[in-house]
Amino acid sequence: MASAATASPRTFQVGIICGSQRIIRAGPQITTFIQQTISSHLAATTRSSSSGHTFALELIDVAALNLPLSDESGIPSKITSADGYEHEHTRAWSRRVAALDAFVFVSPQYNWGIPAGLKNAIDHLFNEWRGKPAAIVTYGGHGGDKCAAALKVVLGGGIDMHVVDPPVCLTFPGREFLVKAATGKELGLDGTAEEGPWGDRRADVIKAWEGLVSMLVEEKSGAV
Ligand SMILES: Cc1cc2nc3c(=O)[nH]c(=O)nc-3n(C[C@H](O)[C@H](O)[C@H](O)COP(=O)(O)O)c2cc1C
């Protein structure tokens, strides 16, 4: 098995998935905060990275996929290519996920669980996710730990993804923030600075990202 340091440098494609689907929502702002945090970390460390690997981040908004509740007649785990699905919306989603190497799931907690739209998007596919690394970031009044635990079971147990532990659970800093989030107002998040809401949680996001990268690089190196 080749070591991570000896594997040929390549560009890994990583999907950052926004799991909220409400019409008025905080999800896109929070997902952008996570993306910015990772991007600024990458910008600061790329030159010092010994592996030479690079990372392209692709934002995926579950709301923009416009997926219906699954209307395929086949079982996703039995389907091994996009052509195996009946509907073009499933084939398009399949091709998109298949092209990505790893994922960061950014999700609100709804009633102690996974938002229905995100679960529906996950359940449309199977082999496109299977065996790939996944990091989990949740948010909510209490940080969304129950959603994170449920996502870990679904992704790690049900689909056999390699899930980074621990997840990052972002607790709303107070009542005013919660009301702003619920009504889609500007939250003042900045993924490039220590100041501001969750500035002190950027280190946890970066730690989860590094966990994801380790899995990604080791897996690909092992396959060389
Ligand atoms: C259907 C629903 C269920 C919710 N359940 C929870 C919950 O279980 N725990 C929590 O901390 N917040 C809960 N909230 C509050 C959300 O954390 C808050 O509204 C947040 O803005 C939702 O993310 P979004 O704006 O990206 O949809 C819930 C909100 C909604 C709409």
Automatic annotation (TrEMBL):
GO terms for molecular function: FMN binding; oxidoreductase activity. SUPFAM superfamilies: Flavoproteins (SSF52218). InterPro entries: Flavoprotein-like_sf (IPR029039), FMN_Rdtase-like_dom (IPR005025), NAD(P)H-dep_reductase (IPR050712). Residues 14-166 form the NADPH-dependent FMN reductase-like domain. Pfam families: FMN_red (PF03358). It comes from the Eukaryota. GO terms for cellular component: cytosol. This is NADPH-dependent FMN reductase-like domain-containing protein.
